[in-house]
Amino acid sequence: MTRRQKLLIGGEWVEPAAGHYEVIDPATEEVVGLAPEASKQQVHEAAAAAREAFASWSRTRPEERAAVLDRAADIVRREADAYTRLARAETGATTGTARGMQVAVGEARFRRYAKGALEPTETPLPPQINEAGPMGRAGVFGAVEVRHPVGVVTCVTSYNNPWANPAGKIAPALATGNTVLVKPAPQDPLSVFAMAEALTEAGLPPGVLNVVNGAAVGVGEAAVAAPDVDMVSFTGSTEVGRRIAEVCGRGMKRQLMELGGKGAALVFEDADLDAAVRGIGTTFSFYSGQICTAPTRVLAQRAVYEPLLERLRAYLTHLRIGDPKDPGTVVGPVISAAHRDRVESYVELGRKEGARLLAGGERPSFDRGFYVAPTLFADCTNDMRIVREEIFGPVVVAVPFDDEEEGVALANDSDYGLIDYVWSGDVARAFRVARRLRAGGVGVNTVGRNMEAPFGGFKQSGVGRDVGSYALRAYSEVQAVVWPG
């Protein structure tokens, strides 16, 4: 795993102009591999290569694009064990998470968009009868909506899932006929390069996919601002998303942004509390809370407030923290020492703000690794920073409410609006509340996902929608063709 990774530019594996840096295993603090540091010039060369390849790739038959993506999925399945070890080492995810939620989802997304490449790109519209006027004679006018690829798409990917997130961008972009420039998260880029190797082996033509990388901010800035780039697809923090949007605005580049979240979990007095605890508990265990869709903000009706908190506290006692390679481990480390310190600073802030600490709050006693104890705060108020700001770690905050109106108001009193959750035994109320929540998605009595449903956020949680066929539209320009009948 300690190879010196090269960049992929125009179908060639190229030495990085600015050298390499170490990728660190968050669990052991050992070196996983050496990641390349591209120069601004190399980023622009990669974008130019994608521009050159666009003319031919955008005109390939959908069946050819589908075949490449299918073969890539086969290769990911063939190499799943090696890819799982790499993902686990780079991210600190447990073996089960690395295999089932990272690599396997990456394979599934290539498979899904192999089928997506074959979806119709033309949609007939109802005819319209026009009266005679300044625009011409009366007549019946037909119309059709036609989807076209946008062009060169820069994909800036997140560190919390270096397989599912990049595959969810690259696969639909390629299926639609775009060419792609990928800038992986600097913490764990080696998995993305392994994905690029699989696509290359699958027969993707030179220049259709290019991968640059770097820990320096300038690498990502160049990948967004490069003149040859037509669209930017970004997953990450709202703060970075704002800066990307400013650059895209100057060049009128298309955007797809999946940004921060502070998911509200409304638990009503008639809820199945054990089911709610299992769902909310994923914040502690799933990627160690490093996931924007986590139900980190628990809003519980007063009748069940203390019983729910007691169940959550008991749930924490059964979560084993430790080495991700150990089959019994449920909670692994966070991605880096810097992020561990950031999460711990929020825990200290919660104490100072007057929240009641029910569990966690102290660093686990391991000799190595960037571990954070799953933490639960009670008696919070909506003006506390730990309630309003995205912590991106295994920290849950709880706020009580009296009635449905107050619960909905508290949930919506947030800068974010990615995914919220409702637990209630009254299905009619649960769906009524769901429709009032200002969030791009709502889980009713579940934290599960339907992978054909649109995904994206309201407010500061993003711009646009992807997943399923919505992703094909996200990476398309829509043209109207009209003719007289």
Automatic annotation (TrEMBL):
Pfam families xrefs: Aldedh
Keyword Oxidoreductase: yes
Key words of the record: Oxidoreductase
Superkingdom of this protein's organism: Bacteria
The Aldehyde dehydrogenase domain, residue ranges: 13-481
Gene3D superfamilies: Aldehyde Dehydrogenase, Chain A, domain 1, Aldehyde Dehydrogenase, Chain A, domain 2
Protein name: Aldehyde dehydrogenase family protein
